[in-house]
Amino acid sequence: MSTRPESVIDEVAELRAQVKSLRAQLEESTKTTTQYLQNVAHQLTAPLNAIKWSIESLKDPKVRFERKMKLLSSIYSQGTILVHLIKNFSLMSNLEADHELGQFRDKPERVDPLRLAINLANDFQPQAAEGGKKIIVDEITFDEVFGEQHLLVVKNLIAQALSNLLENAVKYSNLGTTIAVEAVQMRIPKLGDESWTGFSVQSIGLQIRPEEFQKLTERGYRGSDAKQRIPAGTGIGLYLAERVMSLHEGILNGRVNGGTATFMLLFPKSRIR
Prior knowledge:
Elements: H1 5-58, H2 65-101, E1 109-111, H3 113-129, E2 134-137, H4 139-145, E3 151-153, H5 155-172, E4 178-187, E5 195-204, H6 210-213, H7 224-229, H8 237-247, E6 251-257, E7 260-267
Parallel strand pairs: 2-4
Antiparallel strand pairs: 1-3, 4-5, 5-7, 6-7
């Protein structure tokens, strides 16, 4: 059966169009990857340069003791940022593998939610203090919601997810404001009658537009106001938090009221022991 020349021409034209489209996609992907790597490089070098500068100042005998104490606090703060970033980058590849397998690589354990919240809040307190901010853990809510119960989770994963919420709150909240960490319990109508329990991180800062709010958990996505305040950023914090919660049969929930943003890590009853 012979093929008409017109058909061959049409097929060639279609293939050329497909090649052109694929080339455009590749160029866009390359551009996006390059920009992302530049952001990652900046995110890593910024705290390293700050630490280096602080150490140089500490070596100066003319620097007063009070100033040296502030420099040490800054080194701790920048070190926390650096460790947090490295953990996020490492976690991203591991999470993808875990999702493919549909299981954890580490065994879940019983974790004290209040102790975890306090430890992480203390880690980010120096960074918050640099902007005149403070982090408060409402222990009463943890007693009311959890009592003597614990979370059955992979500790390092949940710690990183909660760290991501705290890091965003510290980074994007207004100067001199308070970041509140609480235990919460609620029902989500669209998910049925089951009660969900977990952590809540509330801060006052950036206005998040409704159309952007729905995209915040997309890998690499950052809102326009966030990019204006802090140009360099990876946009993977909430993405990773959502992936961590998905592995725990939980959800990342959030709401915005004006400049007040609340993000929650919520677990099903099966994770409360």
